[in-house]
Amino acid sequence: MLMRPFVGAWLAIFTLMVFPLQAEELNVWIMATTVSQQKDTKDLLKPYLDKHPDLRVNITVLTWEFAWPRIKAAAESGQGPDVLEIGSTWAGALSAMGALAPLTPAQIAEVGGQKAFFPALWSTTHAADDPQTYSIPWYGDARVLFYRTDVFRKAGLNPVEAFAGWESFKRALQKINGMEIEGKKIHAFGYPGKTFDLVHNLAPWIWNAGGDFLTPDLKSSALTSPEALRAVDFYVGLVAEGLTPRFALEKSPRQIEMDFFDGDYAVISSGSWLFASIKTPKARGGEMESTAAQNFGVAAYPPGEKGANTFFGGSNLAIMKSSNDKEEAWRLLAYMVGKEPQIRYAQLTSNLPALIEATLDERVSGDRNYKALLAVIKNGRAYPTIPAWAPLETLLRKDLTNLFQFGPRTKGQYSLQGIKDSLEATSRDMNNVLGQKY
Predict the structure, then answer these.
(1) Distance CA 116, CA 109 (A)
(2) Strands 296-299, 83-87: parallel, antiparallel or unpaired by DSSP?
(3) How confident is the model at residue 402 (pLDDT cuts 50, 70, 90)?
(4) Do both 136 and 284 map to the same domain?
(5) 91/187 same-domain check
(6) Are residues 171 and 72 part of one domain?
(7) Residues 149 and 296 placed together within one structural domain of the fold
(8) Do 150 and 115 fall into the same domain?
(9) 146: which DSSP letter?
(10) CB atoms within 10 A of CB 7
(11) What proportions of the chain, in percent to the nearest 5, are helix, strand and coil?
């Protein structure tokens, strides 16, 4: 009898020698936000992994343009990663599909709770009709206007007055358009018309006119309202008047940003990630030496009759329900949304931390660029987190490009009726999507 513990101990040692314990392994899907996303993510996780040497993390990088179909397929098959980065507008659809693991009150409290994060970003952690939390905000993305301060000075324009309202904004663009700057004519306003960013760039104009994409009950399209029509008419009208060149509509957001640094535009719509190019030398892939980078300002979208909002979305982290190690996945996620990793990631990407405490840190708030951004996001607004929003966003991006053809009945000639026809067609498509079950 006395030999049994001894034999048992040797048996345990023999088992470990022949069948060693397997290291923990997690699969993480991350969006391409930096030039070296794979390396930057590994660097971000290094302090955590140094403390957990038995943990192996496999990182897969997705692009925003093509991420949704792959994530949707993973959700439907139940064969996705453990930790998943999702666009803040996707939580409703993925939770409705049963793809995300619900988070407990204890887990939420562990990362600071709801009040630790920006309200607009926290609203995207769960579906609009479901208080259950499925994700945690990681970083924020606010749409703002970048403008050339030297161009405004040469035109004799006060930026505060120029961005004070829609009409003053248009007058400023009219005065700037075609000015010769450093030997080339400059276009007043550049924005893409057929890309992922189209909806985000258009949203503030619609909201500030008093319109919206959906009715208050979130069940029908509201794009045919007089307020939405007025906003879209103003925005598309900038192209019709030549204040935004037609060739810009065919370009990607990145191309528009590069053209801004090349001196092609006086004003563009973009997000905080542009700060990364502004403060990075050309030798390291940035635009710090360009005239635009040395002469730029940040402004909120001009307020309309009914508001002064901007789009404030971003990125959340979630655990897929199919994960075989949700506890380990949560520990990694909780680390990533903590203060120090959020600050570090903000420094890498120039995006805004989702954690309010992180934005108050001198390493963030001490940057004049972020000070301007923090002033803008006081009026930040997110989309409704309904299950249909992700497919709606894809639909809107496709359908709204027709706006720049100036409507199906006008054969390329701009008219308010043509814009109205396009919005009515888009609304019908939206209502079809909203009528489906998710």
Answers:
(1) 10
(2) unpaired
(3) confident
(4) no
(5) no
(6) no
(7) yes
(8) no
(9) E
(10) 9
(11) 50, 15, 35
Q: Is the Cα dihedral 46, 47, 53, 54 positive or negative?
A: negative
C-beta of residue 108 within 8 angstroms of C-beta of residue 117: no
Amino acid at 128: A
Pair type for strands 24-31 and 55-62: parallel
Average per-residue pLDDT for the chain: 88
First to last CA, the chain: 63
Tell me if 218 sits within 8 A of 385, measured CB to CB: no
Total residues found in the chain within this entry:
438
Q: Is the pLDDT of residue 408 over 50?
A: no
Summarize pLDDT for 143-198 with one digit per residue, the tens: 999 999 999 999 999 999 999 999 999 999 999 999 999 899 999 999 988 776 78
Residue that finishes a domain, picked among 267, 300, 333:
300
CB burial of 24-45 (b: ≥16 within 10 Å; e: otherwise) equals bebbbbbbebbeebeebbeebb
> Whose CA is closest to 312, among 362, 373, 254, 368?
373
Q: How many domains in the chain?
A: 2
Within-domain flag for 208: no
C-beta separation of 141 from 312 below 8 A: yes
CATH number at residue 281: 3.40.190.10
By CB atoms closer than 10 A (0-12, 13-18, 19+), residue 286 is middle
Q: Measured between alpha carbons, how far is 132 from 251 in angstroms, rounded to an integer?
A: 39
49 vs 373 pLDDT, higher one: 49
Q: Which domain holds residue 58?
A: 21-142+312-381
Same domain, yes or no, for 85 and 46? yes
Phi, psi of 297 (to 5 degrees): -135, 165
Residue 282 has pLDDT above 80, yes or no: yes
Instruction: Report the pLDDT averaged over residues 91-98.
Output: 86
Q: Worst-scoring range by mean pLDDT, 122-131, 365-374, 404-413?
A: 404-413
Q: Please tell me the distance from the alpha carbon of residue 24 to that of residue 318, in angstroms, as a whole number.
A: 19
* Alpha-carbon gap, residue 386 to 393, rounded angstroms: 11
Amino acid 394: pLDDT: 85
